[in-house]
Fold each of these.
Amino acid sequence: MQTVRVRIVAAELEAKRIADVLERLYEDEGNPVSIYESTDDGREWTAEILLFEVEPDEAIADVRSRIGSDAFSAPVEADILPELNWVEKSLEGLKPVTAGRFTVHGGHDRDKVPGGGIGIEIEAALAFGTGHHGTTAGCLEEIDRLFSMREYDRVLDLGTGTGVLAIAAALRSRQPVLATDIDPVATKTAAANARMNGAGHLVHTFSANGMNDRRFGEEGPFDLLIANILARPLMQMSRDIAAHMQPVSTLILSGLRIEDGPRILFAYGCHGFHLSKRGEKEGWLTLTLVRGRPQA
Ligand code: SAH
């Protein structure tokens, strides 16, 4: 998930006016806007907004076109923020995490998987998903719960990162799972992790932006989709996701802040999905939605 910071440096009043305008223009999307003094003498102030999943030049063009390029003379700059939140360098030193009957662990903790549990060994490298994040753990619990009630025959893990959720579903069900990610490094990592966990033959991967690839048409429609991405892309993708789901199907959606719940429910409600289960972990929300006859 690329985050681009767009900055406009100006005198105090001008910068504050620009920050106010940005706040209003991006209100619906909720992009964070900040304003701060950027020189000690107070002569320069910076109005700043974060945009997601865009390139810096697109971000500048978007801000300029929304504000109106002749509304101010200050230069607009953009840079890419380091993706710290999405990157776990290594599991070294991190404790194993247990969620449902899954225990996610690094190579050094193979012996920590409780008897009867399902161990998932992850070498996180450059992808997100070690189980230490509340969203991943929330999804793992739901995967365990859903598979304990019934089988699913076409499962998609959208935004797979390290592949942790796809591997969990594959090990739990012993059935094929499709795992995709916008980031080719993630899909490669996921495939390697699946092999390491003896699920290489079950987890099939490819890179794609959202559901935007003809291969989803060939592999779907799906009856279970797991997507631990952020609220905004999940809102944007709701129509595409719904279009690739079977009439009777289940979604596990995570990466959501508590306050994102209502708009996600509304967006997916428009496509016939309703809330089946809601879980909170460390301020993050995981929603299970179903369409068709109640099943989860
Ligand atoms: N499923 C893992 C990783 C979640 S991190 C877990 O639960 O721990 C979110 C992942 O979604 C990242 O790997 C990111 O690259 C991917 N992603 C973000 N936007 C996406 C999009 N539009 N299409 C597909 N994948 C996306």
Note: The first strand starts at residue 3 and ends at 10.
Amino acid sequence: MIQPDRVVTTTCPYCGVGCTLQLHVKDAFIFKVTSPFDSPVNRGNLCIKGRFGYDFIYHPRRVTTPLVRRYLLEGQPKPEGREQVFDTQRPGPNPWDWLETDWDTVLDITADKLVEIYKRDGSDAMAVYCCAKATNEDNYLLQKMYRALFRTNNVDHCTRLCHAGSVVALQQAIGSSAMSNTASQVIQNDVFMVAGSNTSENHPIIALQMKEAVQKYGAKMIVVDPRRIDLVDFAELWLPLKPGTNVPVFSAMAQVIVKDDLINWEFVKSRTEGIDNFIASLEKFTPEYAEQLSGVPAADIRRAARLYANAKNAAIYWGMGISQLSHGTASALALIHLAFLTGHIGREGTGLNPLRGQNNVQGASDMGAMPFHYPGYMRVDNEANAAKWEKAWQIEPGGLSRKLGLTTTEILAHAHPGGIRALYIMGENPMMSEPNLNETRKHMQELEFLVAQDLFINESGAFADVFLPATPFAEKDGTFTNTDRRVQRVRAAQAPRGLARPDWEILCSLAKRLEARLGYRKTAGWEYDSPEQVLREMASVNPDYAGITYERIEETGLIYPVPSMDHPGTPTLFTESFPSGRGKFIPLDYVPIMEEADDEYPFILTTGRILEHWHGGTMTRNSSLNEAYPEAHVEIHPADAEIHGITENMAVRVSSRRGEIVLRAAVTEKTTVGVVFISWHFAEAAANLLTNDALDPQAKIPEFKACAVQVFPAREQELPNPETQTKRGRY
Ligand code: SF4
């Protein structure tokens, strides 16, 4: 057995559970990952991604040298037609060739181009995507760079694409958008509801805790999901609703609670407002009306309502099946109302828990990687907030923009002359994660200058003008904040490979160049010795993190809010009141999905993740996990498959009004009749070529969870070959 030279404790780079990893290192090479049994988050358990998905860091396609397009390095004007990027047959030197260079050169070129565009077109031409996979410190610095130097709030990240509906709903109803409890408190409930979350594949360790709550502690689980997901086998009740019918189902549950006189009046009177209008708004939401819309039997809706309301302790956990809809905010509000009516919030176990997807999507949001908020969810259009950050960042009074920025989805839609001209992408992949990718491609081509800071040249990096090679989790220090709000350490286990540098170092080097070129007074604001110093600067203004230091989170992390240096952290929120004071009931109406099935497109497509892969696949498809699950599939119910002449593993074409893909069929009762499912991870059969870019008007989150498609048999030769048809590794 190999004996490690050292074992480095750090935090998983994949999902929001935030499992503790121990990286076993021999001869500067990580050869094994384990987890300690006393980890408070995962008690030694890891899923396949945490255990085996780390080897992307050694993949030969990883870029470890700065890259600049030939035209830039040779001082030529920018050539027309970004599509030439994909023309690998073109003879001779191509102006789009990537040329290797050194850090000074790439950072000087990047700073020159960004400043040129800013001086010519102003703040509104600049935008940045922060990164839910990067550390808190990386995200804090990137949003600071854009706010402090380019004076814009066009700052966002992929929270817009996963839980923006939940965030807006929770902010409206209670003034806070984080989970109210830790996931491990699920065992303290006698009833809990899991809505729109395939937890076993998306948050596998939390699914283990849910199963333990059922099997060991006797809790009853209600699953609300259009698919027969793994958790259904452990559930007391499964409500298989049609995609996009959350509001009628949860509102009908609310009506049952009202009609059966199961309201917790003490809680409603002391902690909420708006109950009378809300009850009046429920009039039409009978269980029978909800059954008509959702297909869920009225009797089951009644049973679910009574189970939840009669519980001593009950909680709600939800995923993107609630939020990724053009009415995602209303869907989340409908769940929040159930907790208000019954008082199932503010005690250990009970509460409202949107399960956050990426490892650090909670932290990136906390760090202000959003267009409406500084770090700590301080509104950018509030004078007092702006003044606090101007002081912290040594900016003249009134220097920061008070104008709300554009969201992720709006940034690309504004990529045209007169709109966004320069985009900086740290670690995100909009060419996989945006809806309606054929439109996204056009927007990417419209950009004048694109910076990609990443590990690989992914589908979005292919459009970039410069590439800044960053380090992955195992080659840098910092912190991640998991879905429990637990701030945990990330530790380097090996030196950066090649010339790659940690994101925070790249950003500081670039910011100093920008500061000089923009003619600002030189500040000490970019002279950090370590990421720890970055966190302390942020914590000096953000009260939620005020008591968090690297020393204090050395062992097990701390769950924020941690308002002072002797505060132990806050696993359970809202025990006395909500940040907004009283919780607000907000009457809702039912708004259907934007594109219903019809004769031409008879199926509803719903999309999501699978256990073996992660989002746009930049990491997992460049790891050994790709061997475990190498090919895209569309799940289709056996009854639908028979009607359409589709058999298991057959090549099929799935098309929508926006695009088409060819992939293999998986004939399975996991999906319901009339609904097909495709995961997001495969560039060669990208589900988002099909999805609808209709947005929730408040949260601006796209409707990834429902659009109309048709499915037909295809020929085997039409199946994409991942090696020749994806653009990976070609550049
Ligand atoms: Fe990593 Fe999430 Fe798996 Fe834990 S459950 S090992 S955090 S991917």
Note: Residues 273 and 584 are 5 Å apart (CA to CA).
